[in-house]
Amino acid sequence: MRLTFVAKDPNSNPTNSPTLYRTDRGSWLVQGFVVTDPEALAEMDIPEGESVVEIPDRMIQFFTEEGRGVAG
């Protein structure tokens, strides 16, 4: 799998996490904050081998070509 860096959260200090990547498989990888809230996790059906990360709304803009400053 090849990754293309898309964006780091510009308003998060000191690590600029979460981070968003695009893959050559037509998918996205999101590095974010691990969700540990037991009530939130209980509401989801998370299979073994998967996890949940949280990203702020301000990162959604980077999921579009326009938000990444890419023409097309």
Describe the structure.
- The protein has one domain (3-64).
- The radius of gyration is 14 Å and the shape is globular.
- The chain has 1 helix and 5 strands.
- The mean pLDDT is 85.
- The chain is mainly beta and 72 residues long.
- The longest helix has 5 residues, at 38-42.
- The two termini are 24 Å apart.
- The strands form 2 sheets. A 3-stranded antiparallel β-sheet has the order 1-2-3, with no helix packed on it.
- Residues 10-20 have a biased composition (Polar residues).
- Residues 1-20 are annotated as: Disordered.
List its traits.
single chain, about 70 residues, mainly beta, three-stranded antiparallel β-sheet, two-stranded antiparallel ribbon, 1 helix, globular
Describe the structure in brief.
This protein has 72 residues and is mainly beta.
Q: Using only CA atoms, what is the Rg?
A: 14 Å
* Mean pLDDT score: 85
Helix content: under 10%
Provide the number of structural domains: 1
The chain-level structural class is: mainly beta
Question: How many strand units?
Answer: 5
Question: How would the blueprint of this fold be written?
Answer:
Layout: E1 3-8, E2 19-23, E3 28-31, E4 33-34, H1 38-42, E5 53-54
Antiparallel strand pairs: 1-2, 2-3, 4-5
